[in-house]
Amino acid sequence: MRILNRLRSATPRIAPLLLTVLFLYGEVSAAQLQLSWTDNSGNENGFKVERGPTSTGPFTQIGIVASNVTSYTDTGLADATTFCYRVRAYNTVGDSGYTNTACATTGSTLTLTKAGAGGGTITSSPSGISCGSTCSASYTSGTSVTLTAAPAAGSVLTGWSGACSGTGSCIITMSAARSVTATFALQSFSLNLTKAGTGGGSVTSSPAGISCGATCSANFNNATSVTLMPTAAAGSTFAGWSGACSGTGACVVSMTAAKSVTATFNTQTFALTTTKSGSGGGTITSAPAGINCGSTCSANYAPGTSVALTATAAAGATFAGWTGACTGTGACVVTMTAAKSVNAAFNVKPPSPPGSLSVM
Known about the structure:
The strands form eight sheets. The chain has a four-stranded antiparallel β-sheet with strand order 4-3-6-7, with no helix packed on it. The chain is built from one helix and 31 strands.
């Protein structure tokens, strides 16, 4: 009896009803639970931790901690699963009685993935996810988690997939493990091309997208530098840009917003220029109309136009002949295949000899 009493007095004691199990929030690779208890023994070598699926077991020892340690974290657990625990102290003499049995249910893991060419961050309420860096967290069963997307500069959220869809709020009730993907795209803006004028032609872009012709509008990513290149049709000329570009040189558009450009193509024409020389006076007219020189000594004509020039001497003058695109004193007909010039010479009519009869 004395030996038995010594063994009993050496056996560690641990008070009942002091074991608690807590669910651990935060970033996880698998669910975990934390146990804690009160150490009421003074002669233990350590504590043995047992786990079972229900409060009545069966229990299996899963860990041993040193003396005076009063907590244990059970990791690598299945999501949304109930686990029950009990603890007892031990020394070289034997084991104490068990604590109370305490049970808890692991949380469910919410995993966030980002996709797309754009960028952004995702945060959660309640906290846990800040993705960015922390893209997975565990929540107790039944927790309503709201995910909020913040696109980076020059990016837009194009939508959720997985446990959420659309582009609005993403609210998830954590009844099991859930996965969500947030897709960010680079922000794009529309470049619209319009053609104007009496002529024809096409405009293409680099990078590709516009071939106007047929495709006169395209979307380009934010800050893309787009070069527009005009090509006049046969018989037409490129007259210039308006809108987001001007002049007749290169058109380079930086796509920081929606932009519009107009390319003007006019029917190709050639200038026919007439001049007058000599001591006399006169006029030059054209058929088709355009030149009346007199005052209007130059006009533009479509390629291939046949222009007949007529010289009419003023009173007291005679027409002396053509030079330039025409020669001689006969008819002057100019075919407009390029810009051309014609000169008409008018000389003062010489005075009649003395005693001669002048017929007017």
